[in-house]
Amino acid sequence: MSQDKSRRSFLKNISLASLSALMLAGCDMKSFDEFLQKHFRTLSAEEIDEIIKELEKEYREKYGKDFKVSAKAAMEGTLFGYALDLSRCVGCRKCVYACVEENNLSRDPQLHYIQVLQMDKEKGIDFEHANVHYNPEKVPEKGHFYLPVQCQQCRNPQCTTVCPVKATWQEPDGIVVVDYNWCIGCRYCMAACPYGARHFNWGEPNVPTEELNTDVHYLGNRPKMKGVVEKCTFCIQRTREGRYPACVEICPAGARKFGNLLDPDSEIRYILENKRVLVLKEELNTRPKFYYFFGV
Amino acid sequence: MKTNSIKILALIAFISMFQLACSIHESEADFYNYTPEDGEIWEGKDVGSSVEYAVEAPPFTDGIYPCNDCHSEIEPNPERRELVDMHDDITAIYDHDSENRWCLACHDLENRDYLRLANGELLDFNESYRLCGQCHGDKLRDWKVGVHGKRKGMWNGEKDYLLCVHCHSPHSPKFEALTPEPPPVMHIKHEETEQTN
């Protein structure tokens, strides 16, 4: 019997051997399935249902809680926009922590989607001299104003174009999302974002079980893993159900406004048409859907 | 011949533009001189009612309302004065154009369970935004569309409004200072940065 010594048969045999070695080494079928999961945007409705069922099962085993995982698609005729009233924000940081709770963000290591920058009124909007660690007895402090920064949901996002594996993209309703299962953790998107709005899980995310929000979206606030990038999604799990984002509802000054840019009767359109509005780093042509305005 | 026809065309164009301008002017004049006909109810666009805006209950001090529990037995005194006995807590903080106004600028003399608009209309406390809007019309306008103040609910559906007085004390309206939540943890400690410097 002549032996086949071609390169083709060598490759075939070695891959079969390593595959069986992997199987023998205790690699269960579930993580194997997860490894072979297709790109989210190419999945059929049935495949998404399957993945969601698996996730709900996994979370029940891991946290002992019943999660409701949604993969609700964008509503027809919506383009989400956000506006923040710089003349009202008092810098209390309530939004920062409402966001942490709503979106199951890691407490330790600490991860915040929102950074509230304290600025000098004299200097105007000046990122070089902004202070994120201010901690006086009471806010607002005299001579200062406050500028919270989070994902600006650009119409022309640079974070998505640099992703080498297309793990992040802009949805039809304008929300820039990340598929944590697809992210390889290269952090190119963090380098590309001019707003510092993307955050990396350097360690295993840590959320106290009793504080877990079990109402989650696949592309949003589901529990994240070590080694993936995450970001503000306008609370996709809430806004696709018609609700306001958590930061809007917590703001005691009523400085945060949210709505559908395609609806001429929305508060966001009223602001764009009647108030003095600005976007951050306009010269970069990222074209944010997150606006800052002066209500007075 | 050619130049003549161009001139005629230009003249026609000019006349039609003039007519158009006149008609716009007329319709504008109609708009401003509009008076309701007999029997027609003139409801200004800005007439608000409690039905129109779902608001949370007014933030009364415990046990203060209904006012008539006490006031029904007190002879109304319309004379402007400083309150020293009951309501002296309000006197202490009162800072809402206090030079020119006092209690009865907003509260009704005869029936203390109601507020009173400048036109004499009595107003329930849960419609107090209409009273505030008498002076702060620009704020009322923004509040109605959800731009001034805070709302909860659905961006594409029902919304819960807060009254002006939920955030601004009517007697001392400046928004109160708040205690900030803790700052984010420092990734690099101060001592370390000093050493590296």
In N-to-C order, the SSE pattern of chain A is HHHEEHEEHEEHEEEHHEHEE
Greatest chain-chain interface? A-B, 41 and 27 residues
Largest sheet of chain B: 2 strands, antiparallel
**C-alpha Rg of chain A (nearest Å):** 22 Å
Strand content of chain B: 5-15%
Number of E strands of chain A: 12
Indicate the mean pLDDT of chain B: 80
Features:
heterodimer; A: 296 residues; alpha+beta; 4-stranded mixed sheet; elongated; B: 197 residues; mainly alpha; two-stranded antiparallel ribbon; two-stranded antiparallel sheet; 33% helix; extended
Walkthrough of the structure:
Chain A is built from nine helices and twelve strands. Chain A has helices at residues 7-24, 29-35, 45-63, 94-102, 158-162, 188-192, 236-239, 246-250, 267-274; strands spanning 68-70, 80-85, 115-120, 144-149, 168-170, 176-178, 198-200, 215-217, 229-231, 256-260, 276-278, 290-294. Chain A has a four-stranded mixed beta sheet with strand order 10-2-12-11. Chain A has a two-stranded parallel ribbon with strand order 1-8. In chain A, strand 5 (168-170) and strand 6 form a beta hairpin. Chain B has 197 residues and is mainly alpha-helical. Chain B has helices at 2-32, 68-71, 88-93, 128-132, 137-144, 164-167, 190-196; strands spanning 115-116, 122-123, 151-153, 159-161. In chain B, the strands form two sheets. A two-stranded antiparallel ribbon of chain B has the order 1-2. The N and C termini of chain B lie far apart (89 Å). Classes of the chains: A alpha+beta (296), B mainly alpha (197).
